[in-house]
Amino acid sequence: MPAIDVPALVVRNRPLLLTGVMAATIMQTLDSTIANVALPHMSASLGATRDTITWVLTSYVLASAVMLPLSGWLVDRVGIRTMMLVSVALFTLASMLCGVAQSIDQMVMFRILQGLAGAFLGPLAQTVLLDTSTLAERPKMMSIYTQGVMLGPISGPIIGGYLTDNLNWRWVFYVNLPVGIICFALLLFNMPHTPRRERKIDLLGWLLIATAVSALQLVLDRGQDRDWFSSPEIVIEAVLAASCLWMTVVHLATARTPLFPMVIFRDRNFVIGLMFFGLMGLVMMSVMALLPGLLQQIYGYSPLQSGLLLVPRGIGMLLSMVLFGRWTARIDPRVQLATGFALLALSLWLMAHWSVTMPRVPIIVSGVIQGVGLSFAFIPANMIAFATLNPRYRTDASGLTMLMRNVGSSVGIAGATLLLARNVQINHAEIGSHVSSALMPFPGDMNSAFAPISGVALGYADALINQQAAMIAYLDDFLVMSLACLAVIPLLLLVRTGKRPAGVDVAAVAAESAH
Fold first, then answer.
1. What is the pLDDT of residue 2?
2. What's residue 507's pLDDT?
3. Which domain holds residue 213?
4. What is the pTM of this model?
């Protein structure tokens, strides 16, 4: 074999190392969806409301977003081996702590720790797979990596639903313990040491970004309870978010060694690509956060059944990647991306026309369409973002795209939950105003004579109003997301044409997009 076709990282037992690396990746991606179907049960057990329980999802995604910009610097300073071992150990410990949490405050704190540790597992796993394979093996490795990344979100709702139905919601976190211990052992005995190097870090830039993102998240999550800008707390958080965002822009433009080089923001394709990544994260995670509550509380499905009804999204995404991977390489990425967002808008429009009483078929059909739409959006968005970007900036640009997607996810979950809570109140008041004593199954002036019956009847009427108000609120959320998907399609007119560089593998691009 030519000398150039030699792995950059030679290991003693590559199969065992790759098994540990992929298991860690699947464990991390699994936790992005496994807790969704258990949210209604967590809410009752932890004493959380419908809008505060989503912090279980938001805190995990937000913590990952905050830590992602530091991944490259930490790897250079301590090495991949140390980073992988520490990340797996902390992630496993945080999973155990999430399982024993007794309040929503404890759960959020432990989920933050889990997100901080899990932020590095995906990028590090991809690096290990690339470094331990030859140039000829890399397309195959990236295909394996992509399928592993997809396996977590697909199997998460099923595993979470089964564990919640048959054991307890706490087992959606305990299930990580044996996997984490095995991963740690495999990495400990098979992961070699890698060279370290000194590298300056833009600590101020990172702190500004972390503060801006966190403050914005607090505004969205706490604004409803604090009556928005009538609360000094919300005003302070909003001013802090806006100030830090402005200071971040100034700092990146003037710093000698900024966290992200400003030259990448001069690339029009890349900036537009960031918008697409943010919207995809917003839509995908918002829908995954809303659907379990809708399926369990409105339609009455069990956690396992609701988990199974979420699977078609992952299956549609995985099958379209496998079946159309080679075909999509021959089509203009702009056409693919427009098709992807059109399919996403169609699926959400179909969901916005669901009714309280309907069979499972519309849920499955919209899920498959949405999965296909996501797959048609992920790969071309990455190709567009990197089509005209200087290759030397790809590492920094990849970290920024992951950050944008995670921020979009956390903001999307908070925004969708906020819109849902407000619309439930508005719809309840509006529907209730049309209910009069004439609609009751007993005379309005004989409540005292029919006290036992009237109490039950009024309670039943209020339950029906609550159900209808919540259903309308869910449909409004889906409609808003559908319109958002359609609204970004005209941005493709601003994208410059750029051919895909030779040697770029679709599977590798899909793998980057999956995170």
1. 44
2. 45
3. 202-258
4. 0.76
